[in-house]
Structure formats: structure tokens, C-alpha cells
Amino acid sequence: MLTESKAPGNSREIFKHLVGEKITACFGVGSQIWIVCGSGSAFVVNNAAYWVENAEAVEKVIDKRRD
């Protein structure tokens, strides 16, 4: 599930999500780069699109990668 919608490249709403966050992990899934924050959510970049995924979605992707 998306907690933020896909937005233009200079979207302040998305980047405000990263302010004050500690990056705890970073990994690739296909053409996407997932930057996991201390809160458990992730900033996801896929070519020119990017968005924020909630902690549940991050756990699902991590569990799938472990299988």
C-alpha cells in the first residue's frame, strides 16, 4: 500500500518524509531502490517515479526476499 502517491520529481511532500529519519537499510527489487527508514517505512525510487511505502509493505518485501 502506498502512504503517499507518486508525484513529480520535486515533490516536497515526499522528501519531507525523509527529514530526521535514519536510513537503516537499502536494497534493490527489480528496477526499484528501497531506502528503509528507522520508522519502518521506505522511500522507493523507480526510474523517475518515487513514493513512500508503509512499514507493512516493507516487511512483506523483505520477507519475500528472504524466501
Q: What would you say about this model in short?
A:
This protein is α+β, with helices and mostly antiparallel strands. It contains 2 helices and 4 strands, in the order H-E-E-E-E-H.
Tell me the structural class. Answer: alpha+beta
The DSSP helix count reads 2
For the CA atoms, what is the radius of gyration? 11 Å
- The proportion of residues forming helix, as a percent range, comes to 25-40%
- What form results from the Cα inertia axes? globular
Give the terminus-to-terminus CA distance: 21 Å
For the record, the count of structural domains works out to 1
- Write down the overall mean pLDDT: 82
Largest sheet: 4 strands, antiparallel
Strand arrangement, largest sheet? 1-2-3-4
Strand residue percentage: 25-35%
* Run of helices and strands: HEEEEH
Strand elements, count: 4
Low-pLDDT stretches = none
